[in-house]
C-alpha cells in the first residue's frame, strides 16, 4: 500500500471519529433500557372480556345429535323402485335440465313441481296443494360430498326422500332414505352424481314448508360442530381430526395449524425516521370453535362469514414496536413488551387467560385468519381502534 493511501485512510478514520463525537447519546433509547410498562386501557380489557364471554355463551342452532350421524347410511343404493317425474301429466322427457327453474339460497319459490338447485346449498320455502302435491329439487355434486338436509313444516304429514337421477333415461331411483318434518336427512358420503329431493305428503296438503340443504362439505364427516339455521354454513369434523367449514379447511386438532398464523404490521417512514408496530400469532393451538358463524366488521378488516377460534396455551405470540428519528440527537426506541407487560416472543400461558380469551377471526371465504380479537392486540387494548362488531348469520 502506498504512503498516499495510508495517509488517506488515517485522515478518513479521524474524520469519522470526530463526526460521531459531536452526536449526543443522551436521547438514544435502547431496548434494554426501555421502560417496560404496558399501554393497556383496563376498561378496554374488561369490555373485550365481556364481549368474548357473550360469544362463548351464545345460543347455537346445532341440535344435531352425533348418534344420528353414526346411524346414517354408509352407502347409497338403488332400491329397484323407479319413478318418472311428472308435472301436470307431462313427463320429464318433454323438458330439459336447463329449463328447470333454479333455486338459490334463501329463495322463496312459487308452487311448481320441478326445481334445479343452483349450487350445493339451498334454503327454499314453498307449499304443497291438491294441484301441486309434490315438489322435486335436483342437484348434481361434481365430486364426493357430505349431505345435510332438513324439512320443516307445521304439517306432520310432509316428508322428504332422496333419489338418484338418471338423466339419460329420465328416471329417478328410490334410495329408501325418507325423513319427516324436523328430522335430519344425513348422507356422510354422497358420491358425485345427479340427485333429487322430493317433498310430498302422506296425508293432507295445503301447508307451507321449508327445505334446507347443504352438500358443500367434504365426505365422510364424523361430527357436525356448528351450522347456521339456514344451513348456508356447516362446520364438520373428520376422523383425521380435521375441521372444514363448507369446503374450506379450517384446522386440525392434532397439528400446529400453520394456515391459521396471523400477522399485522404497520410501518410509516418520513423525514429521516420511521415507526413500526408488529403483531404475530404462530404455532396456533385451538381449544374451541365458538358457537355460530358471524359477519364481522372492524376498522382493520371485515367479512360476511367468519368463525371465532379460541386459542389455547402454548400458542406463539410476538409483539414489537420500534421508532427511529435521525438528527443531531437521534432517537431510537425498540420494545418487545406486549400490552400485558410481558416480553415477547413467547407462548401463551395460563395467566394470559385472566384477561379473557384470545380469539382468531377466521374468514371462511378466503380460508385465512383476518384478525386477532384479544387484549394482546394493541389496537383494541389501548383503544386506538374501536372494538369490532359482529352478528350471527
Features:
about 400 residues, mainly beta, Jelly Rolls, seven-stranded mixed β-sheet, six-stranded antiparallel β-sheet
Q: Mind explaining what this structure looks like?
A:
The protein has 393 residues and is mainly β. The protein folds into 2 domains: 28-60 and 247-392, no CATH class; 66-218, Sandwich (Jelly Rolls). It contains 4 helices and 29 strands. It has helices at 3-21, 42-56, 66-70, 378-381; strands at residues 82-83, 86-87, 90-91, 101-103, 107-108, 114-117, 121-127, 135-139, 145-152, 158-166, 171-180, 184-190, 195-201, 208-217, 223-227, 234-237, 242-245, 248-252, 262-270, 273-282, 286-289, 294-297, 302-311, 316-325, 331-335, 346-347, 359-363, 368-373, 389-392. A 7-stranded mixed β-sheet has the order 1-11-10-13-8-6-4, with no helix packed on it. The longest helix has 19 residues, at 3-21. It is elongated and about 90 Å long.
